[in-house]
Amino acid sequence: MQGVLEEALGTVLRLPAPAALTVAGRTDAGVHATGQVAHADLAAVPDDLQRRLLGVLDPDVRVTAAGIAPPGFDARFSALSRAYRYRLTDAVPDPLRRHDTVAHPRPLDAAAMAVAAAPLLGEHDFAAYCRRREGATTVRTLLRLDVRRDGGLVLVDVEADAFCHNMVRALVGALVAVGEGRRPVEWPVAVLAAGARDPAVTVAPARGLTLVAVRYPPDEELAARAERTRRRRL
Question: Quick check: is 100 catalytic?
Answer without folding.
Answer: no
